[in-house]
Structure formats: structure tokens, C-alpha cells
Amino acid sequence: MAKTNTDEIDLSAGMFIRCLPVDDWTTHIQVPFKHLKVITHDPVVLQSGNAKQRPTDVTDEDIELHSLVQRGLELGKKTNIPKYAAYIQRYVTRERAAVLPPIHLWTEHPLSIVQSTHQGALQNFLCVPHGLKLIAIDGETQLASHYHLERSLVGREEERKQHADAYLSAVVHDNRTPLEARQFFYDLNVLGVRVNSAIALSMDTADPLMEVVGRLSEEIPFFRGKVERISRQIKKNSPKVVKLQDLRQFVVNMVHGIAGVQYGTKPAPVDHVDLADLESAARDWLSAYSEAFAEEIADREQCVAAMGSVLAAVGAMGRGILEGPAEDRADRLEELLDSLKKVDWRKGDHWLGTALTKTPQGKYTINGPKQSAYAVFGALSDPASPAYAVVRGEPASPGL
Predict the structure, then answer these.
(1) Are 232 and 194 in contact (CB under 8 A)?
(2) Fewest beta carbons less than 10 Å away: which of 28, 303, 336, 399?
(3) Block means of pLDDT (10 residues each) for the chain, length 400 residues?
(4) Which ranges constitute the DSSP H helices of the chain?
């Protein structure tokens, strides 16, 4: 990357973007989206197989270069675009505090930096020649989401202008071969370690359900100081008795029933729910469950009462408490507890096919919520289920 010291900027040479040079091949830029779209293509049009829908300025060479340094926009990456666009919209309209990571852009062509006096100070400007398009080697989903948002805001000119004028951060890698760019893609996407679901949930202050879960974990005496918020698994000698994600699933399932396990750590819709009422009902049900089965919940080694699939099922049982008349809640809660008091929570063969699996060596392994929550829910709440009698140590009803 060559530097030219001059006080003159020749606008016929290309687009000039204020920048901070890092080394001979790397430059940091801050650029509004309306300018970023001049030096990039919408990643959607760079996918192979869309020849008939391609803009005229997208060449076969562009498609080939993109395929060398990027994966396709498909599956989870594709379905994430509208969600990311909605997040960006909240960011640019300042509906909520948000953050966008830098987009890494690449070109094999060398670019130049012009130093020019601007507003009384000597500043650097990166020159991107007219017609040259940079390819995102990291942050492509974000870039595609910006284009998606622009299209979705047609007719809403004030928001569209806010988005067009919003400044974004990018790192430009120029004069690098496609092989080097591919390596950068690997380095940026593989070398980092993603946080586990427990940490991600604990850090999500925008999820209204996490606010509820946070208060429940602190205000219900049994759980205070006993919720594992960091690790995906509770260590053998840990004083913790329940994982944060399992406590959240309990609350999610009070809203959505056992089908709530489909959301996992993803946001669960609660627009139709009175959150204060949900918190009140969840506090009553979780408090009653933890008081009735305190020993079984604390004994994770010998009992299943604190397992994720069991808490998911117990939470789903509480849906009837939430949705029923307020004056009937206490009676409904007692009915559920009376039924659960007959359950044998100890690990054993009576939980096989629901909460547990047995290895050839005779060791019990725990089934995850998505794998077994429906079966556990049937065992705890449905008298028509064969497992209902089994986990209670009763003989199965004839014909079941």
C-alpha cells in the first residue's frame, strides 16, 4: 500500500474513506453504509447459481473470487440474516444499546492512501478505485443483513436514512492473494473459542425471561448461591444444584408447555405474556417444588430431580398454574405437588427410556432436555403414559 503526500484529493480516482493504516496491507476504516455499499456487493448476489438475478456489475470473476474465500449463504447463516437485520435496525435507531463487530474486507489489488489536510489536520484517506468491489472475508452475514435491512425499509424514509448514514467499522486487507485471504477466513472463524450457552445466557441482559430467572435465582432462598451460571456442567463437588439454562427452560416451559424445549438457548416469544404474572406464578411453583424436594434436588449424584429434562417437564406442568384462574392457583399447585410426591426420584431402571440411559457397563447416563423432555413430561404428568406408573413404583395399568 503506497502513501502519497498531497493536499489534493482527485475524486476521479475513486472513493476516498478516512482511515487508520495498521501496516502495508491492513487499514481500519469507519464508513457509513451508504458508502460501504458503493465498495461492496450484496453477498446474496455473489452466490453461485443466481446468474439470472445477478446485477450487471457482478462478473463471473467476482463469483469465483467469493467462492475461494467464503462459504455459501445457506442454512443457519441464511436464516440469521433477517434476525441480524432487525438487530441492526434497533442499533441504528438507538432503540437499544447494541454493538456491531468490524467487517473484514479483502481485495487482491493494491490500494493507496492519500494524506491530506482536512479540517485543519493532516488525515489519511484510503482510495478505493471506482468499480472495485471488496469481498467480506469475515462479517459477511452482517454485511448481507445491512442490504436486507435497506430493502425492508423501503417506504420508511426516516429510518432508511438513519441506516444509510450509520457509521460502521471495517478492516480492509488489500494486496493479498486469494490463498492468504482464505487463510484469514480460517483464522478469523476457527481460532476463536465461542462462549458456552451458560455464559451467553448469563450475559444476555436484553432477554426479558433472563430478568425473571435472575430474580428467581436470587429471591427463592433454596436457589440463592446455588445456580451454576458459567459452566455447562456442574462439577461433582460443586455447591451448585441447578444450571442457569435449566432454570430458564423451567420458566420458558411455563409459557409454552413442553414444546418450549424447541427454543433451547434461543429467544422464546413472550409478547403475549404478562411478565409480572409469569414471574409471580413461576416463583410460587419453583418455590413449592424446591421446598417439597429439597433433598432430591440437592443430591444430583443419586437423584434426577434437578436434571434439565426433569426441570423442563416440571416447568411445563406449571403452565396450567399460569393459565388458570388466579383464585385456583393454590389448589392447582397442591394437586401437582401431591402427584409428584409419589415419584421415586432416585436414579434407577425406572427412569430408563425417559430421563436416563444405561450403558453396556451398567452405568446411567443423563438424557438431555431436547432428547427426553417429552418422555419425562409424560412420566410426570400423564396417567395414560406407561412411564407414569413406573416412576412412581406402581404397577402399570392393564392395557397400557
Answers:
(1) no
(2) 399
(3) 62 91 94 96 86 81 90 84 94 90 96 84 91 95 96 93 96 96 91 73 79 94 92 87 94 96 89 93 97 96 96 97 91 96 96 94 91 95 95 72
(4) 33-36, 60-69, 75-92, 140-152, 157-165, 178-190, 197-203, 208-219, 244-256, 275-292, 294-298, 308-317, 319-323, 329-340, 369-381, 386-390
Find the helix or strand (DSSP H, E) in which 136 lies.
Answer: strand 135-138
Q: How far apart are CA 126 and CA 109, in angstroms?
A: 13
Residue pair 317/251 in contact (Cβ under 8 Å)? The answer is: no
- pLDDT in the model for residue 400: 46
| The three cell numbers locating residue 256 | 409454552
262 and 253 Cβ atoms separated by less than 8 Å: no
SS3 264: coil
Residue 49 cell numbers, joined = 447459481
112 within 8 A of 127, measured Cβ to Cβ: yes
Residue pair 116/5 in contact (Cβ under 8 Å)? The answer is: no
* Residue 385, pLDDT score: 94
Closest of 313, 290, 291 to residue 387, by C-alpha: 313
Give SS3 for 96: coil
Residue 59 is predicted with a pLDDT of: 86
pLDDT of 189 reads 85
pLDDT score at 374: 96
Question: Each residue of 345-361: b (16+ CB within 10 Å) or e?
Answer: bebeebbebbbbeeeee
359: Cα separation from own chain's centroid: 33
Q: Which amino acid is at 242?
A: V
Give pTM, 2 decimals.
0.70
Encoded amino acid at 161, one letter: K
CA 65 from centroid of its chain's CA atoms = 30
CB 42, CB 141: distance < 8 Å: no
